[in-house]
Amino acid sequence: MKKALVISGGGSKGAFAGGVAQYLMKKEHKEYDLFLGTSTGSLMVSHLALDMLDELKELYTNVNQKTIFSNNPFKIKRVAGEKVVSIRHLNTFWNFLNGRKTFGESKNLRSLIQKNITREMYENICTNNKEVVVTVSNLTANQIEYKSNKDCSYEDFCDWIWGSCNYVPFMSLLEKNHCQYADGGFGSLVPIREAILRGATEIDAIILETEVTQFNRLPAKNPFSLLFDVFDFMLTHVERHNITIGKLAANNKDIQLNLYYTPTVLTTNSLVFDEKMMRKWWKSGYKYAKSKREELMSEFRPDVLTDKEIEEGLENY
């Protein structure tokens, strides 16, 4: 039996996924053989494969804009107590003046990856026979690619993680092997089907969006906010398509698929990294996973059934 943990893209909302994963792995004692991530999910899977939850929490609850962007295209200000994001015209102009292809640069994130996902960690993942897979979008070949730790060197692996996280045109473009790579979420935001193709028989998938649309966006006020709205629209439908295909594939092969959505809308701009909010989201993810488990157990009337019967019921649920 091969168990897989899948984490979708979602930028700063990855902190919520960290809380869910912490509950599943520490309290439910779930062990996985295969870890797949897209975008922010790709940043998390190496730590999860080594059960380094404390280190991952430290990382995800202490990042900010400066640790991600070497040239930040965003200007954040508060209007009536709410954060409003607009473009930093000088920063984007500087990028274009220097021949860059994007509004901003995320070279600080590449350094952060190398610092926190060490060569020793990479070697331990391989030694422990765990497989970590990250998703990238090959814009040159117009296709989705899945990069496994088993198929590349440490330096390449760090590059693929970085490429998977680069939400162009707001972040850097990875140019490698004569191709241009960007955020894997543009084509495979929730790589459930890839987990199945790699032999998973039970999958826990953490999806960093609500199960149903819970809000309407305000009208765009400038080209920058319009571009954000277009991207969010596109990614929402990519996500739904991925989940639908994943469910069909799981049903066809009789695979247990557990989906963990965010219960509420966490943010409308996941490229804003607020340490305080991310700490809150981590706790929310943990509490959500716990409440879902308790809700599941209550359906089997633990006051009547034995512990063994409860566990058997949960396995068949």
What characteristics describe this protein?
two-stranded antiparallel ribbon, 10 strands, alpha/beta, 317 residues, globular
Please compute the radius of gyration using only Cα atoms. 20 Å
What string, H for helix and E for strand, traces the elements in order?
Answer: EHEHHHEEHHHEEHEEHEHEHH
Q: What structural class do helix, strand and pairing data support?
A: alpha/beta
* Count of extended strands: 10
Proportion of residues in extended strands: 15-25%
How would a textbook summarize the main sheet? 8 strands, mixed
The multimeric state of the shown protein is single chain
Number of helices in the DSSP assignment: 12
**Straight-line N-to-C gap:** 17 Å
Portion in helices: 40-55%
Low-confidence stretches: 300-306
Mean pLDDT: 89
Structural shape: globular
How does this structure look, described?
With 317 residues, this protein is an alpha/beta fold. The protein is built from twelve helices and ten strands. It has helices spanning 14-27, 40-49, 53-60, 65-68, 89-97, 107-116, 119-127, 154-165, 192-197, 223-252, 275-298, 307-316, and strands spanning 3-7, 34-38, 74-79, 82-87, 131-138, 143-148, 174-176, 179-183, 202-207, 256-261. The strands form two sheets. Strands 1, 2, 5, 6, 7, 8, 9 and 10 form an eight-stranded mixed sheet that branches. The chain has a two-stranded antiparallel sheet with strand order 3-4. Helix 1 (14-27) runs parallel beside helix 2 (40-49), helix 1 runs antiparallel to helix 3 (53-60) and helix 2 crosses helix 8 (154-165).
